[in-house]
Amino acid sequence: MRKNMADYRIGILPGDGTGREVALEAQRILDTIEQHTNQGFEQTVIQCGGQHYLETGEEWAEGSFDFCREDVDALYLGAIGYPGATLPNGDLAGGSVILGLRSGLDLYANLRPIKLYEGVPHKVHGKFTQIWQPGLVDMTILRENTEGLYHSLLRRSADRAMGRPPYEPPEMTFPGLKGEVAYDPRPISEHGSERLIRMGFEIAETRDGAPIDGQKRVSCIDKSNVTRGCQLFRRTFDKVATDYPGTELDYGYIDAFTQWLTRSPESYDVVVTSNMFGDIATDLGAVLQGGMGMAASGNIGDDHAFFEPVHGSAPKYAGMNKVNPIASINSIQLMMNWLGRKNNDDELTVIGSLIDESVADHLRDGKGLTYDLGGDASCSSVGESIAARLATKLQNTF
Ligand code: IPM
Ligand code: MG
Asked: How many domains does the chain have?
């Protein structure tokens, strides 16, 4: 048990729209842990985002990036993006936060687990369809998070967050094209690929393999029949893989992968892919776990990390206490796992598992589901129910 140790410092970035509501449920989980264990969380809330930009003229208060880099142990982010919130240069307002932190803190891996809990209908037919069998959908997609098609925008956003002159990619000419041309270079580096892919293999070591056969498997998803960046990514995959002889290697092109992901999700264990492909594939993957309301993520580097629900700010539901808080709550689960590993604090890892069990119990019970899962429960009532279950488990464990 930690005693007389400084609390973990957690930065809370609620962001836009319903991000502000689900952030409260993330905080409720942190409060619950604090009440029932020796763990302490010093929470600092930083208002930010596109909506904040429209309200105040700035994406976040000056000094916020430095605070996130220097003065926290982990960050939580609600959601970024608001209708009409665009910067004068056309970039996403709020980008300093989500993209500035990804690039500026070198958070090179976007960890996106996709797991279908018992009691949750998947969304493949757009209806509520029950297909749950133990472990039918249980994989982790690792999306490269600092380069690829996002590279220029990431750099510009980080430059803005750090008060540096904005990066612009070099002028290029494109033979055969007429009229105005806009382009985003897609650089992929060996270093950026290697560290992401290595993390994928390391994660596979900690998992029980793919649901279909229990085989540890890492899938390299790219478009190496077409792009040079993907050819480098795949070559790097093969090089890293030689360090993990017990892991099965799997390859797919992103277009074919979208079919296989929906047709046979049970064959996937860990998937590594580049930035934009991962952005797209994880929204598709969320359909297999009951929708975006269930999709949690971690943006992870060697020294820093922030955790966020994958869903956006859903402005049309803002202020209605209606959206599903489970993606947000499970992002705290990922935060506990990361903090636990980083600080050799096994208690946090146990707490992470207890959050998972609390969510699973709530969903198995089937009462109190939000609209996206076919119920009419409120965001806060789901948060309260999961927090109450967690409190009991923490009391019984610590
Ligand atoms: C995500 C989001 C972001 C992205 C947006 C909000 C910039 O879609 O985290 O997946 O494109 O990465
Ligand atoms: Mg996305």
From this structure: 1
Q: What are phi and psi of 9, to 5 degrees?
A: -95, 120
Q: Is residue 384 part of a domain?
A: yes
User: Cα separation of 125 and 128, whole Å?
Assistant: 8
Angle between the N-to-C axes of helices 275-287 and 254-263, in degrees from 0 to 180, rounded to the nearest 10 = 20
Q: Residue 92's domain is classified under what CATH number? A: 3.40.718.10
* CB-CB contact of 94 with 52 (8 Å): yes
Encode pLDDT of 102-112 as tens digits. 999 999 999 99
Per-residue pLDDT at 125:
67
Ligand 1 atom at minimal distance to the Cα of residue 110: 9
Query: What number of residues does the chain have?
Result: 398
Burial class (CB in 10 A: 0-12, 13-18, 19+), 333: buried
Q: Cα separation of 114 and 282, whole Å?
A: 8
Q: Is 111 in the pocket of ligand 1 (CB under 6 A)?
A: no
101 token code pair: 């932190």
Helix (H, G, I), strand (E, B) or coil at 52: helix
pLDDT value of residue 2:
43
> Band of the pLDDT at 1, cuts 50, 70, 90?
very low
pLDDT of residue 14: 98
Task: Compute the C-alpha angle 312/146/295, nearest 5°.
Answer: 30
Q: State the distance from the centre of ligand 2 to the C-alpha of 224, rounded, in angstroms.
A: 22
Q: Is the CB of 81 under 6 A from ligand 1?
A: yes
Q: Is the pLDDT of residue 194 over 80?
A: yes
Contact assessment for residue 260 and residue 254, using Cβ atoms and an 8 Å cutoff: no
Residue 341 contacts by C-beta under 8 Å, 6 or more apart in sequence?
349
Task: Kindly report, residue by residue over 119-170, the tens digit of the pLDDT.
Answer: 998 887 666 666 667 678 999 999 999 999 999 999 999 999 999 999 999 9
> Cβ(98) to ligand 1 under 6 A?
yes
Looking from the CA of residue 102, the nearest atom of ligand 1 is 12
- Residue 97 to residues 31, 122, 184, 261, 271, Cα–Cα distance (Å): 24, 31, 20, 31, 26
DSSP-derived letter for residue 212 is T
Q: Which domain holds residue 37?
A: 1-108+296-398
